[in-house]
Sequence to fold (304 residues):
Amino acid sequence: MSVSSREPGSSVGSDDPLYALVGRSIEVQRTVTERDILGFAELTGDFAPHHVDEEFAARSPYGRRIAHGVLLLGYASAASSELSAQIDQQVVSLGYDRIRFIKPVFLGDTVTVRYEVTDFEAAKRRTSARVEIKNQDGQLVAVATHLLQAPS
Amino acid sequence: MSVSSREPGSSVGSDDPLYALVGRSIEVQRTVTERDILGFAELTGDFAPHHVDEEFAARSPYGRRIAHGVLLLGYASAASSELSAQIDQQVVSLGYDRIRFIKPVFLGDTVTVRYEVTDFEAAKRRTSARVEIKNQDGQLVAVATHLLQAPS
Fold:
């Protein structure tokens, strides 16, 4: 895994430490291994043949095994944890909006997850982030919106 | 894991095998073990201290370690795979809408995921399902909408 981040320019407005996340982004890069997919199947119980059965997958429209979409989402959560560790405020994942698995991710693909905090809702103490996941060819394979919140 | 499902009454309308899923539901029950959470952290890279650091978690508003929300979502995907195996049509996960992690899930909690297909969009060959996850006390801990699609 590689991690990078950048800081925003000057921030104005809220004194909430969460506000400092707005404009910050982080990238996490991961190679999706067979071990990851089999491990994810075991942990979640999702043994759909697209993911674990090479013979089945060879006859599917994809032609070979594909990663679980939710595994990719786990990488996004990892990115959010890395980024939120930069501030002195505990946060937890409130949820996701509009996750779309746009293209298949195959065993051996290397994906880059870009997580960028775009909004801060002061009253609810939550941030909203745009998640974009690309494969090694630069193709967008998944998008999502992620919400972080200060625990109450 | 325990799995149950029920069949709907008569179905009218589309000849698409996906249509047969509408009204069907399945329940999957899982105890969230420490091994699950540590395994999930390792697979995804999400080592946020809420999930893996008991000392940190003891001082957090939750008082002890909590499960990754996306791990729960993995159980929902597993439920969708179980249910969609009932029909003679390959489907894949298109994504999720409005996932909310409502209450914390702790190590040792037993959650029940209820997955019910509520809608079918014929033109796009996709189904929509309501996901509700409850803990052993019957409290709703997470909700989501899940989309399945016939691969093109």
